[in-house]
Each structure stands twice: as structure tokens, then as C-alpha cells.
Amino acid sequence: MNYTDILYTQLSKDYNCSIDDLYSDKNIFTIKENIEGRRVYDHDDCFLKVCSVHGKLLFSCVDNSFLDWLKTMYSNFHADWFANYPNLRLLEKHLLKYGHIIEDLHHFYLPKKDIIEVNQKDLNLVWYNQEEILQFQNDDRFKYSLGFWETAPDVIAVASIKDGEILGLAGASADSSTMWQIGIDVTPQGKHLGLGTKLVTILKDEILSKGILPFYGTGEFHMLSQRVANQSGFIPTWAELYTSKFDG
Predict the structure, then answer these.
(1) Which residue among 28, 68, 166, 180 is buried most deeply as judged by most CB within 10 Å?
(2) Could you give the CA distance from residue 70 to residue 91 in angstroms, rounded to a whole number?
(3) pTM above the 0.85 mark?
């Protein structure tokens, strides 16, 4: 399984560009279109979304004039510095002229090639399929591991259980046909047992065994989640920003 090829195939659908574009060394600017097979989220209709991957930037925008401004500003801009606050402030200042603001920014991880062995003794693992996951709908204990999004359904989950109580649960949503996103929740009773790392690792390996590429996303300031990703065998690979309408 070539992780980069799978990621680039997905990003080409998400950002309306060719795979060859992604393997080039130039930043990419495209008109935003709803391409079949793209990852569909709540912000799918956003004005602008930006991706940083392997040192390059992908811009997808619904407005041609704003896209022209982006080309002027960022054609030769290195992706490593895009999220520096002075640049984001400049971008948002121009976005406001069009009635939009920066809504959120996340970075994402792909698995390393090496295998991490997990001692499953005493974990008392229980697996859940897509139908069985529905029992946890509206259960606030698992708001990060299970999303219950119609466009990205939760398809598999694994929990560690002791005395009938769930200590931690890792779930994966089918964000596309080739890439599933992993989330994790650990209950108060399961804290400080290393369950986050163990469950994410176990679920990651199970997804890989199905020929699907797992990925992990988290916030810029969520250091605990970032440590779980690293210890579970993931490495930071790309970041994405999207906008929303300014209602102020």
C-alpha cells in the first residue's frame, strides 16, 4: 500500500486538481467543485479551503477574484509558514471583504511503515461493527471517537472493558472509500492506563489489514492527542484550513 498515492488521489478529489499537480513542486489554485469521491464534511460548502502537504499549498475557492488574489500572494509562498499568525491575520482581513472568516485549522497524521506491538493482555477488547455502533448515539462519553455523521459514517470501533464498564473506545469513520479517520475517547475510569495509545494502535492495524488507509486528525493545541498519535505509530502529514460566513 502506497500511502502517498492514496492520500494524493484523495486530495485531488477534495481540491479539484490532478494527481500530477500534487507531485509537482508548485502551489495549486483551483475553483472549488463538488467532485464525486471527495471527503464531505459540515463545511463542504465553505468559501475557501486550504491544504498544506509535503511543503506545498492547495487552495480551493468558489470565487475567481479571490483566487486571483491568492495567486498573487501565495504562488511562491512556502507551506511551512502559512499558519504563522501574521499571515493568517492577513488572509482573514481579505476574507472579511468577501464576508467570510477563518473557521478552523487542523493537522492530520498517516501511519508510519513500522509495526508497533501492543500487549493486549487484560484489555478485554470488544469490537463493534457499523450497526452495533448505533447503540452509542447521543452518548457524550464518545463524542470524539464516534461522530454519527451521515456523510462520514462510523464503520468500526473497539473498546476496552472492565467489570462491564467501557474504559476507552476508538472508532473510525469512513470519510472516503479509501481513507478512514480514527478518533479516541477514554473515560475517567480508564485514565492514565495508556489506553488511548493502545486502542488507536489496535484499530489502526485492523483498518490497514482491510486495505484501507487510516488517518488521525487533531487540533493545533491538543498536545495529549498529538502524543497519542505519535505513540500509536502516526506521523504528521498534512494540515487543512477552512472558512465560514462572518455573521458579525
Answers:
(1) 180
(2) 9
(3) yes
The cell for 162 is: 472492565
Rounded to 5 degrees, what angle do the CA atoms 147, 22, 174 make?
20
CA distance 18 to 9: 8
State which H helix or E strand residue 72 sits in.
Answer: helix 64-74
Map residue 131 onto helix, strand or coil: helix
In one-letter notation, the amino acid at residue 166 is I
Instruction: Write the CA distances from 164 to 125, 126, 136, integer angstroms.
Output: 12, 11, 15
Are the C-beta atoms of residues 228 and 82 closer than 8 Å to each other? Answer: no
Measured CA distances, 52 to 41, 129, 190, 194 (Å): 18, 33, 35, 31
What would the pLDDT profile of 146-170 be if each residue is shown by its tens digit? Answer: 999 989 999 999 999 999 999 999 9
